[in-house]
Design a protein that fits this description.
Elements lengths: L2 H18 L4 H8 L3 H9 L7 H11 L3 H4 L13 H15 L7 H32 L4 H9 L5 H30 L3 H12 L5
Organism: Hominisplanchenecus murintestinalis
Protein name: XRE family transcriptional regulator
């Protein structure tokens, strides 16, 4: 394949993949540590996009194989299909890249513990939310019967109350986390103790 044709193939495929995932230019630019104009120029082939480092950077950013970008195969080798997955992975990667934090060890430890607690609580939220959505999102004969037995005015009211009950722990825990951060300003030792106590309730 001639270099000009290769440039066009890489650019067209990179753009096709980015558009199919509804990813902005800025997202890909951020992943490759360049500006979005550079990504635009890679996509339209107006600058050399055939260098190994660039092709592999685009492939990593778009979660496809370098071979697919070069037109050597029709197998995309994609491991993600939802742009949210990319953004979550990118956010987590950037958070990890922030460490070690430029602060005292005890402050850094507090920040890491806070992140751990968020992640533990979020995982529990997903479990509760999944159950709530399945059981109370659409309703059914059982919910209709139960709503009457329990004195609710409608099945919808019963579903709303039960859904909220399922996710209430997450609502309470996020409120508790916010309060711990507020307390830290005046009583850091108390905030650290409360955070450690909440963390002790969790395990991987």
């Amino acid at each position: 394949m001639e270099k000009k044709e290769l440039r066009r193939t890489i650019g067209e495929r990179a753009k096709q993949r980015r558009k199919s995932l509804k990813l902005p230019l800025q997202y890909v630019a951020g992943q490759m540590d360049v500006n979005k104009t550079t990504i635009q120029r890679y996509e339209n082939g107006s600058i050399d996009n055939t260098k190994k480092l660039i092709v592999e950077g685009l492939a990593d950013a778009l979660h496809v194989s370098a071979a697919w970008l070069r037109g050597e195969t029709e197998d995309m080798g994609a491991d993600m299909s939802d742009s949210r997955d990319f953004k979550i992975e990118s956010a987590m990667s950037r958070i990890m890249g922030d460490f070690p934090l430029d602060m005292k060890e005890e402050e850094s430890d507090f920040s890491k513990d806070l992140l751990l607690l968020f992640l533990y609580e979020y995982r529990m939220f997903n479990q509760s939310f999944t159950h709530a959505a399945k059981e109370y999102g659409k309703g059914g004969d059982f919910n209709e019967a139960m709503s009457k037995v329990m004195g609710f005015e409608s099945e919808q009211e019963f579903n709303n109350v039960m859904f909220l009950r399922e996710v209430m722990r997450f609502i309470n825990s996020t409120s508790e986390i916010s309060d711990i951060v507020r307390v830290y300003a005046k009583q850091p030792e108390l905030a650290r103790t409360r955070l450690k106590n909440l963390l002790s309730e969790h395990s991987l």
